[in-house]
Amino acid sequence: MRYISTRGQAPVLGFEDTMLTGLARDGGLYVPEDVPTMSHGDIAALAGLPYEEVAVRVMAPFVADAFDEATFAGLVAEAYAGFGHAARAPLVQLGPNHHLLELFHGPTLAFKDFAMQLIGRMFEHTLRKRGDRVTIVGATSGDTGSAAIEAFGGLDAVDVFILYPHGRVSEVQRRQMTTPSEANVHALAIDGHFDDAQARLKDMFNHFAFRDRVGLAGVNSINFARVLAQVVYYFTAAVALGAPYRPVSFTVPTGNFGDIFAGHIAKRMGLPIEALVVATNQNDILHRCLTTGEYRTGEVHPSISPSMDIQVSSNFERALHLAYGGDGSAIAQLMEELRGGGFTVSQGALEALRETYASGRVSEDETSATIRDCLARTGELLCPHSAVGVRVAQGHLGSTPMVTLATAHPAKFPDAVEAATGIRPPLPPRMADLFDRPERMTRVANDTNEIETLIEDKRTA
Ligand SMILES: *Cc1c(COP(=O)(O)O)cnc(C)c1O
């Protein structure tokens, strides 16, 4: 399979290099040149299969040039073996035609584990085969960092540096990043917001001398391998609810647009998805854009769903690329305008986006009220991000089954959950000692040079 940049000016790559490269050298994001499709029969045949088997069938055509099927099946099996639920991504019914897809049974209690556990193993396999090493640098609003540190800690061929916004992640998130003892992982607390961390990361990718010197690799959702691993649970959930014979809709708590874009790929592959509903918190640039066509960045307002406190939503570029019919120069032009504060989506592209996406926005009070109501009505304790999803989904319920993605475990955000319900959700027993372990982190300024110097000093290769 060939992967091309959304901005049309970077080399065309196979899966292996797409995975190891992260951001394209023209500043764009890699996408498959053509999305492979699954027939009605192929989709019907997924019913009742173990998660791992579905994962192999859905992802195989995307990764075929990098792994033979037996090797890939082995990596997939290892990736999900440590999850705390046999179904990996179980569905729970919340009400008539409304279901919750629990994506928080992985080792760090957020959906990021689905991709990170797999790409940790894919990186290791590929780098060993090539006799190569890389320096992974990631920006996180909390959950990507903990998932990456968990997945890559202790691997020989990688050093990992995770930038997170100082003071703006939950204590559980921070401790999951600062307490692992492996020498190859480093938590860097940056003075700024998530958008600053993400901007510094992009600077490093665009600084080619540094990039090549350290073998920079990225595991943010700019990496298509991340998005790919998330396509799988759209299939397992939809098939469990009757696909391909009936359509299903999804509501997705959204920040960087990676998770919901995975749903778009599933739809392009042939899964009958009626609507993909973008659910945002008060940082609602995506909802505003889908409503008005104006994509304008503003201030980030810290919320109780911090993993969605984002203004520049990287993966939206992939959706725009599809909406503009694959016109790389149009996308490059929009991204240039974004540097000046924003852009207007063309009428045709906006209509194309609205064929796939709907959207809604939830205030802080509504988020808390939804956590409280959902507990009272269903017994399900939601994390604040999942509550944003449930609230938006409630406005889109109809005759098509709706699946809301529960993106994190409530115990990852105990303060917000306790404030809403009076209940402090306990951590699962396997991580009960998180608050007793020593922490290790480095404070850094919001300054690309300083961060690069630190990385060059600390990496082991
Ligand atoms: C990362 C994250 C999100 C947002 O996902 P995107 O792919 O960035 O849209 C939502 N909820 C939680 C708990 C997350 O960790």
What does this 3D model show about the protein?
This protein is α/β, with parallel strands linked by helices and about 450 residues long. It has a domain at about 90-105 and about 225-420: Rossmann fold. About 45% of the residues lie in helices and about 15% in strands. The chain is built from 19 helices and 15 strands. The protein has helices spanning about 15-20, 40-45, 50-65, 70-80, 110-130, 145-150, 170-180, 195-205, 210-215, 225-240, 260-270, 285-290, 315-325, 330-340, 345-355, 365-380, 385-395, 415-420, 450-460, and strands spanning about 5, 30, 90-95, 100, 135-140, 160-165, 185-190, 215, 250-255, 275-280, 295, 340-345, 355-360, 400-405, 440-445. It has a six-stranded mixed sheet, sandwiched between helices. Strands 8-5-6-7-15 form a five-stranded parallel sheet, with helices on both faces. Strands 1-2 form a two-stranded antiparallel sheet. Helix 13 packs across helix 15 (about 345-355). It is globular, with a radius of gyration of 20 Å. The mean pLDDT is about 95. The protein binds pyridoxal-5'-phosphate. The site of pyridoxal-5'-phosphate has 16 residues, from helix 11.
